[in-house]
């Protein structure tokens, strides 16, 4: 078996990073916050913000009582700030409809606003020890290599990817196994230079046994940052986070010279509810005017 459960669980017990959301005392709410933050941001940047959030908003109802502006301010520079509003919407639903307790089962989690297929399963597994396939980019890559013998994972397919992982899950300690698969992909079976010499499943890895064939699937889209709308949106939000008063447009205009791109980004922030315009035509974080 190419991704033997006991081998990976033993490896994880010896080598896993000590992350605060993995500790036994971490609440399900803490796990949910970590999963949303970690989706597009590395652990090192998430950890300090996660501590601040859990100290400030230890329960969903605490965060539900905060304004969108406060939440966006606290999100800081984690990027992809719509995640902060998704988390806020989920916190409100949990506080109002679920007795302030993060649901246990995948279907109820999926019914919350802003919680997708990955997050629902990650919370069920890591907060409550449920057996369900938790598939992120790292897991897809490990399975593509170790099980299918390919150089990398092809385009994502939620159904196929989850089926691929579901058949691997052991009956006992499935959630630990899921965490181990993710850790293996994050630390050892990395995208560019996998550290195969340190890999606990080296002997059974099909990619090794196949002679390490090159990836021959469709080209991957490499996400750049410099010059993108994402960068410009971040710069515009930085201005609003840096002040407690609504600002004139001229303050926002100063952050980017391309007026067309700048205005498009400001429009998209308004549409996404990340920025609001006052009656007097000034700009502010939502709920802060
Ligand atoms: S042996 Fe290398 S390619 Fe195979 S699972 Fe381990 S790190 Fe990945």
From TrEMBL:
Top-level EC class: hydrolase
UniProt xrefs under SUPFAM superfamilies: DNA-glycosylase (SSF48150)
GO molecular function: 4 iron, 4 sulfur cluster binding; 8-oxo-7,8-dihydroguanine DNA N-glycosylase activity; adenine/guanine mispair binding; metal ion binding; oxidized purine DNA binding; purine-specific mismatch base pair DNA N-glycosylase activity
Enzyme Commission no: 3.2.2.31
Keywords on record: 4Fe-4S, DNA damage, DNA repair, Glycosidase, Hydrolase, Iron, Iron-sulfur, Metal-binding
CDD domains: ENDO3c
Reaction it catalyzes: Hydrolyzes free adenine bases from 7,8-dihydro-8-oxoguanine:adenine mismatched double-stranded DNA, leaving an apurinic site
UniProt cofactor(s): [4Fe-4S] cluster
Domain HhH-GPD: 37-187
BP GO terms, sorted: base-excision repair; mismatch repair
Signal peptide: none
One family name in Pfam for this protein: HHH
Family: Belongs to the Nth/MutY family.
Name this polypeptide is given: Adenine DNA glycosylase
Organism per entry: Saccharothrix tamanrassetensis
